[in-house]
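Figure 6 in text form: structure in, sequence out.
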């Protein structure tokens, strides 16, 4: 969660010197190079054919979809605002997990999930002047694709090491990310600064690879619903980083909404577990 909580501030730093498309494509390529080197060095065999569909979901969700949508959102949204909206990710992940494995959550789970959703929607509408913005649309879309990627990755991590899951998902995206990085770097201006380079390296190494390696291993060990409880700390940690690293001024509604979402998710996860 520490690695993931730094993703939005690091993305904001990266956007100081890279365009959104360049940042996402280059981070994926760098992470894929690291993962591919590990896979080749250890002579990891190709996954069974039956696992490639699941790996495609992981690739579309956590390698391409979530990074791209959140990066586009952070062009106009603060990291604090994004952290509160994405605070619904634990519940969303638990919902996808319930649908994927065919379990039936209790009424208390659904009530808490709906309450948390209502808090986030009220927060976003209030902070956006009475209407949802394009950044909010990107963030809500990011919730869905990331939850799908987390769920499928957690399922696959039961039959293969967690780092194999994200490693092969990254490799699967190389035919798309390499050309995308080449084109994006040609059209979007690049300014290499300490912030932009540090931000790029963190989202590539920390968020895109190492964080997911540990995350999928944990999900396989304790189960997707219980693992998602660890995400409870992520929004609040991101709020702290947004102040310390970016100097953002928090509105009173941001920590209150984050705390309310935390309570709703805690109730939902207790009911789900």
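Output sequence:
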């Amino acid at each position: 969660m520490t690695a993931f909580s730094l993703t939005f501030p690091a993305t904001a730093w990266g956007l100081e010197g890279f365009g959104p498309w360049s940042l996402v494509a280059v981070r994926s390529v760098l992470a894929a190079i690291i993962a591919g080197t590990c896979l080749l060095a250890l002579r990891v065999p190709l996954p069974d054919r039956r696992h490639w569909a699941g790996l495609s979901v992981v690739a579309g969700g956590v390698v391409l979809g979530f990074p791209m949508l959140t990066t586009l959102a952070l062009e106009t949204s603060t990291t604090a605002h994004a952290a509160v909206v994405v605070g619904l990710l634990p519940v969303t992940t638990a919902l996808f997990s319930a649908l994927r494995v065919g379990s039936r959550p209790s009424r208390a789970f659904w009530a808490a999930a709906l309450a948390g959703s209502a808090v986030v929607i009220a927060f976003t509408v209030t902070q956006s002047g009475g209407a949802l913005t394009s950044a909010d649309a990107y963030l809500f879309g990011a919730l869905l694709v990331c939850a799908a990627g987390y769920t499928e990755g957690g399922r696959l991590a039961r039959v293969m090491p967690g780092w194999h899951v994200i490693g092969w998902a990254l490799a699967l995206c190389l035919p798309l990310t390499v050309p995308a990085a080449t084109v994006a770097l040609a059209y979007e201006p690049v300014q290499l600064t300490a912030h932009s380079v540090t931000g790029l390296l963190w989202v590539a190494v920390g968020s895109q690879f190492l964080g997911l390696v540990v995350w999928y291993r944990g999900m396989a060990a304790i189960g997707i619903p219980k693992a998602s409880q660890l995400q409870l700390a992520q929004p609040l940690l991101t709020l702290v980083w947004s102040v310390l690293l970016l100097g953002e001024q928090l509105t009173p509604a941001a920590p209150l909404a984050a705390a309310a979402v935390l309570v709703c998710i805690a109730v939902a996860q207790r009911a789900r577990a």
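Caption detail: The radius of gyration is 18 Å.
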